[in-house]
């Protein structure tokens, strides 16, 4: 169940502030658009009225030129007498006496460019006897007679008023919807962020199994959740490994330490002056200490590889050189045990990596193969170049007892050894180190059946070259 987010807290969130910013930009844009619409509509109608008045003025001027003052007076009276007309006419003498028209007096308004003027009709007894404005043009005829022709703008004024009211409502609805939408978007984003916060709180409380839920939309938050979950998987794996290492160290090192102490204690208890006895005890103690140091060295190498500390120091490494060096070191060991070590280098690939760790990984694979392959067996060290889905592959194959398919994942854990291998020296960390090195180089470790025997491959991805 999603927890409710307080409104005041929501108002202080970054998603809401971003939504508010975009809302402000949207409101400004809508306001500009509405202003342009208003100006365009009202201005277009006003221009149409002005064009109509100009045509009518031209007609009256023609009437005056052809029929004189008497004809102009009759024409103005005739046009002024039309019912329900919105036209305005006024013809006066030089002294201001009204000869014809439907205005009670000459408007007290200053004419603008071209003789155009705007005035209130209600002050002069307009055509419909209602408060409104008019737009008219005036000019002086020969003989100082003055003529005014215009239009009652009441309908346009009403249209403008309705447009203003409508645009105000549109603007208000835009603000309300934008604000509501911003709140919804911010609330939705905050629910997903709160899910991440709840997961982090669970993890901080000790529950490492918590994971960030994903919405499934594939957006930025989903990608963030995926990266966080991958990071949490890595943290859980490291913490589990650390816990297993601690338990395994405490369990597996107790026996050799107890044996070491017992050997020294027996040497002290034994009453003898023979220096060879003490020499033998010291030699056995050194061998036991070397095995303990080898175990701790392997653990440190695994920890170093898993931490990724060496990732910044990766540099181009020629795998062929690493393979040749490992083969040269272990070929005498294989011959001493009666084994055949065959090195097959089919390419000279270069990958970005840590040469020392790569050499240690290949050496561990060879050491395991030599250790568990019976006398007269055959071991193959193979290096291949670019192939499908890989930049390079290092493979060590033997014809020994192999590893059962259901145990191949288990043997990669620290201190895990098969029952058949417990009689041979070792600490169960060899394959764990190889896997850690492979993961450091974004490579994969593959354990396969060699029929008979085991085939272990380190496969480097295409982008590792």
TrEMBL record:
This is histidine kinase. Coiled coil: none annotated. It is found in: Membrane. It comes from the Bacteria. Residues 187-240 form the HAMP domain. It comes from Azospirillum argentinense. PROSITE patterns: HAMP, HIS_KIN. The lineage of its organism: Bacteria, Pseudomonadati, Pseudomonadota, Alphaproteobacteria, Rhodospirillales. Keywords: Kinase, Membrane, Phosphoprotein, Transferase, Transmembrane, Transmembrane helix, Two-component regulatory system. Its main location: membrane.
């Amino acid at each position: 169940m999603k927890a409710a987010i307080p409104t005041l807290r929501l108002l202080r969130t970054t998603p809401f502030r971003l939504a508010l910013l975009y809302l402000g930009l949207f409101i400004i844009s809508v306001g500009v658009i509405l202003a342009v619409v208003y100006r365009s509509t009202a201005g277009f109608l006003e221009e149409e009225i002005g064009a109509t008045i100009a045509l009518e003025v031209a007609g009256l001027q023609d009437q005056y030129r052809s029929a004189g003052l008497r004809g102009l007076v009759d024409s103005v009276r005739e046009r002024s007498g039309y019912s329900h007309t919105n036209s305005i006419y006024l013809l006066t003498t030089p002294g201001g006496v009204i000869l014809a028209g439907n205005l009670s007096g000459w408007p007290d308004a200053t004419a603008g460019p071209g003789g155009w003027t705007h005035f209130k009709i209600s002050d002069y007894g307009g055509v419909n006897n209602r408060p409104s404005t008019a737009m008219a043009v005036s000019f002086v005829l020969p003989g100082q007679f003055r003529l005014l022709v215009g239009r009652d703008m009441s309908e346009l004024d009403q249209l403008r008023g309705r447009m203003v009211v409508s645009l105000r409502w549109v603007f208000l609805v835009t603000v309300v919807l934008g604000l509501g939408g911003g709140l919804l978007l911010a609330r939705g984003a905050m629910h997903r962020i709160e899910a991440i916060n709840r997961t982090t709180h669970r993890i901080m409380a000790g529950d490492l199994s918590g994971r960030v839920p994903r919405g499934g939309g594939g957006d930025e938050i989903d990608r963030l959740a995926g990266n966080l979950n991958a990071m949490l998987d890595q943290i859980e794996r490291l913490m589990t490994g650390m816990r297993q290492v601690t338990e395994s160290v405490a369990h597996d090192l107790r026996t050799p330490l107890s044996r070491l102490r017992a050997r020294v204690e027996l040497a002290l208890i034994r009453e003898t002056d023979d220096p060879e006895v003490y020499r033998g005890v010291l030699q056995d103690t050194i061998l036991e200490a070397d095995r303990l140091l080898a175990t701790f060295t392997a653990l440190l190498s695994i920890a170093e590889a898993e931490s990724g500390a060496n990732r910044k120091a990766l540099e181009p490494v020629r795998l062929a050189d690493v393979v040749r060096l490992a083969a040269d070191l272990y070929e005498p060991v294989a011959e001493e045990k009666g084994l055949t070590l065959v090195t097959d280098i089919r390419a000279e690939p270069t990958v970005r990596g840590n040469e020392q760790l790569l050499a240690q990984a290949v050496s561990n694979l060879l050491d395991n193969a030599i250790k568990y392959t019976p006398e007269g067996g055959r071991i193959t060290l193979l290096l291949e170049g670019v192939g499908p889905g890989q930049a390079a592959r290092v493979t060590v194959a033997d014809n020994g007892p192999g590893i059962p398919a259901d145990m191949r994942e288990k043997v990669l854990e620290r201190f895990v050894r098969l029952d058949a291998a417990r009689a041979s020296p070792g600490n169960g960390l060899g394959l764990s180190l190889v896997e850690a090195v492979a993961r450091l180089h974004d490579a994969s470790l593959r354990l396969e059946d060699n029929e008979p025997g085991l085939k272990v491959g380190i496969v480097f991805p295409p982008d590792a070259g």
